[in-house]
Write a structure and sequence with these properties.
Strand order of the largest sheet: 2-1-3-4
Helix content: 40-55%
CATH superfamily: Glutaredoxin
Order of helices and strands: HEHEHEEHHH
Strand content: 5-15%
CATH architecture: 3-Layer(aba) Sandwich
Radius of gyration: 14 Å
Structural class: alpha+beta
Number of strands: 4
CATH topology: Glutaredoxin
Number of domains: 1
Length: about 120
């Protein structure tokens, strides 16, 4: 498991935004992954996607790495942010915008507002 932890650590720390998900950002393979990828894609966030279905060591390793039992998992600037429910709540409350702003992550503020307006 050390090899998986090392690979995960390099990806998490080597990218500003990383989404560990089932599938890819262009072809999510579960509803929760699709929701988070959809938010990031719609907001124009540049992020690395890691398909946990392609590697069983990574699939289990990411759960151990974050001590979080579910996938997807979003990381911003090396820090674990949360899974689908947390990202959804943060998007709707504006907390995700604040997190991106504080960490210098570019995103479309108008798109973020449209998400909130459509779900308000």
């Amino acid at each position: 498991m050390t090899d998986a932890k090392t690979r995960i650590d390099e990806i998490v720390k080597g990218n500003d935004v990383v989404l560990y998900m089932k599938g890819t950002k262009s072809m999510p393979q579960c509803g929760f992954s699709s929701r988070v990828a959809g938010v990031l894609n719609y907001m124009g966030v540049d992020y690395a996607d890691v398909n946990v279905l392609a590697d069983e060591e990574i699939r289990q390793g990411i759960k151990d790495y974050s001590d979080w039992p579910t996938i997807p998992q979003l990381y911003v600037k090396g820090e674990f942010v949360g899974g689908c429910d947390i990202i959804t709540e943060m998007t709707l409350s504006g907390e995700l915008d604040t997190l991106f702003d504080a960490n210098g992550v570019a995103y479309d503020k108008d798109a973020a507002e449209k998400i909130r307006a459509a779900n308000g």
